[in-house]
Structure formats: structure tokens, C-alpha cells
Write a structure and sequence with these properties.
351 residues, D-Maltodextrin-Binding Protein, domain 2, four-stranded mixed β-sheet
């Protein structure tokens, strides 16, 4: 009879997975970070970079600049603000104006005061100079025309949504597994599980499977919201999207297990996870293209798992890639996740 009961009892992995899902249901804060936070970020950045045309360049004008210069700028679509020296320094430092026009010097040339390290300052300098030179009678020898691009896939919000999905998959796996394991260690729950008829890998499988159950809901919530709010559409294969998302979550689950294998308290594991995640938030192209970094950094940047995940997601959502287009990113994430899981399994301590 005992053997029959043993055979009908669910596998430890199934029981551990159900346990984690029940815990997740009782954690409203976790649900907010999984579902609410990415939507709030999408709203904020989508509104900031919505397709309503470029914002006008704002220029500070110091006393001594001729009134006709300010009028020419205003007629050319430039926003003009009259400032004194102290206010001009403060506004330029804070980025409230792109550049400041100074009165002509001994040679009669207007002064363009700006920080060339700011992209908006270089753009403002080019716009202001073009407006003033045309107002002074300059004629371009070659006629040109502007063709404004606004089709789907070329907007900033189209670039942003896959990055937010990648960020969410990484954060959800790292916090949802790494922090939970350490919290169980702090509460002495791991030592209690040690007495259960299970292996340590069963614990990891259960945590990872519970995380994988949540992934489809995350993807649907973010993609449906992006479609309704900003008309972001997925051009590629649903199967490819599922594969790259599952591979990314599994990869970061392995890294979370490694990070949590020896950490003894929540402060330690929080520091370790931030040490792992923050560089990837900056380097991996979540909010802007990783191609902006110098060429000597590109091999290291492209080897990061979040870079592979974001590139794979953008290939599917924006470029319309199928399964063949995500094989390379999945391989990169597989190496990171597999090595991390093996090391975490060997280093893991229950107490």
C-alpha cells in the first residue's frame, strides 16, 4: 500500500512548481514588477518619443545679439529665450537650451556657445547656423528634399518594446528565482526541504518551471498593450518569439541559481544580482542601440546574454525573423545558462 501511494504521489518537481505558483499569487508586489512596471515604462517612453514630429530647438540669446537675429530664428522654427549671462550658464548646464548665442566679437562673428558632447547641442548648432545663414541670403547649390520616415518598425517605440521584454525576462528570472531561493534559505525552508524525498536539481527545476509558466502571460500583456497604445505589431513568427523568450528566461534562471547558490541573506543576493544586471541594462541595448559603444567593446557587448536576447526579440518583432533567425542568440544564451546552472548546482548549499 505504501508503494502504491508512493507511485501515485506527484513528482517533486511538480509539487515544487505548484508551491512556487501559489507563493507568487500571494505576492502582489511581484505581480506589479512582472506586469505593471514594463507597461508604465512603455507608457512613459512611448509618450516621450511619440511620433508627433521633432521638438523645436531651444536657443538662449544673450544681450547684445541683434533683434533681427532672434526674429530670423523664430521664423525658422527655433524657440528663442532671452537670457542674461548667469541664467544662460544655468540653462545650458541643465540642458534646458541646446546652445546660447553670444554677441558678435571684434571680427563681427556671432558666438555659438554649446557642449559638443551633447548630441542635442550639436543638432541645435547645425539647425541654428542653417537658419541664420539662409536668412543672410545663402543659397544651397544642390537642391534637396526631406522624406520623413514614420512607418512601423522605424519608430523608437518599436525599438523599445523588444528591449523592455528582454529586460523584463531577465529581471523576472533573476529576482523571481535568485531572491526567492535566498529568502527560503533565510527562513530555513531549504533545510526543511532537505529532509523531503527530492534532489537539489528538483528544487531548481520547480522554480524555473514556475517562471516559465508566467512568461506567456508577460508577453501577451506587453505585446497587447503595445499594439493597442502605440500600434506596435509583431512581424515575425510566434514560434520564434516563444523560443527566444523561453531560452532567455531559462538562461537567466541558470544565472540566478548561480548567484543564489551561496548567498546567505537578501542584502548579499541583491548586491550580486545588481552586479550582474546593471552592466547589461547599460550595455545590452535595452533603451538605445548597443552599436553606440566603441568598436573595441563590441565583442564583449555582443557576448552578453541580454544583448543576444534583445537582438533576437527585435529580429522577430521588427524584422520578421523566423526560427532560423534566432538560432545564434539562443546559442549564446544557452552557453551562459548551461554553464551557470552546472556551476550553481555544484556550489549550492542548503544552509
Amino acid at each position: 500500500m505504501a508503494d502504491a501511494a508512493e507511485n501515485t504521489r506527484p513528482h517533486p518537481v511538480v509539487q515544487l512548481t505548484l508551491m512556487r505558483l501559489r507563493e507568487l499569487r500571494r505576492e502582489p508586489g511581484t505581480l506589479f514588477w512582472v506586469f505593471g512596471f514594463p507597461i508604465l515604462i512603455s507608457i512613459a517612453l512611448g509618450l516621450a518619443f511619440r511620433t508627433t514630429g521633432p521638438e523645436p530647438v531651444t536657443v538662449g540669446v544673450l544681450p547684445g545679439v541683434a533683434p533681427e537675429v532672434a526674429r530670423a530664428l523664430a521664423d525658422g522654427g527655433v524657440k528663442v529665450r532671452a537670457l542674461d549671462e548667469a541664467a544662460a550658464r544655468n540653462e545650458l548646464r541643465a540642458g534646458h537650451v541646446s546652445l546660447v548665442l553670444a554677441p558678435p566679437g571684434a571680427d563681427g562673428a556671432l558666438g555659438y556657445r554649446f557642449d559638443p558632447m551633447r548630441p542635442e547641442a550639436r543638432l541645435g548648432r547645425a539647425v541654428v547656423d542653417d537658419v541664420l545663414q539662409r536668412a543672410a541670403g545663402r543659397r544651397d547649390p544642390r537642391p534637396v528634399r526631406d522624406e520623413i520616415v514614420r512607418e512601423r518598425g522605424a519608430r523608437y517605440i518599436d525599438f523599445l518594446i523588444p528591449g523592455l521584454i528582454g529586460m523584463n525576462l531577465m529581471s523576472g528570472s533573476m529576482w523571481g528565482i535568485g531572491w526567492v531561493l535566498v529568502n527560503m534559505r533565510v527562513r530555513k525552508l531549504l533545510k526543511r526541504l532537505l529532509a523531503a524525498p527530492m534532489r537539489r536539481r528538483h528544487l531548481f527545476y520547480g522554480q524555473a518551471l514556475a517562471r516559465l509558466v508566467i512568461i506567456p502571460i508577460e508577453l501577451i500583456v506587453i505585446l497587447v498593450f503595445a499594439r493597442l497604445a502605440f500600434d506596435v505589431r509583431m512581424a515575425g513568427s510566434v514560434v520564434a518569439l516563444a523560443l527566444i523568450s523561453l531560452a532567455g528566461s531559462a538562461s537567466f534562471a541558470g544565472m540566478a541559481i548561480l548567484v543564489a547558490s551561496r548567498a546567505q541573506n537578501s542584502e548579499t543576493v541583491s548586491g550580486l544580482m545588481n552586479l550582474v544586471m546593471l552592466p547589461m541594462f547599460v550595455l545590452s541595448g535595452v533603451f538605445f542601440s548597443s552599436a553606440h559603444f566603441p568598436a573595441f567593446m563590441q565583442p564583449a557587448v555582443n557576448a552578453l546574454p541580454l544583448t543576444a536576447l534583445c537582438n533576437g526579440l527585435r529580429a522577430v518583432i521588427i524584422d520578421g525573423a523566423g526560427i532560423g533567425g534566432v538560432v545564434a542568440p539562443i546559442a549564446v544564451m544557452g552557453v551562459w545558462g548551461g554553464l551557470s546552472f552546472v556551476l550553481g548546482l555544484r556550489l549550492f548549499r542548503w544552509g
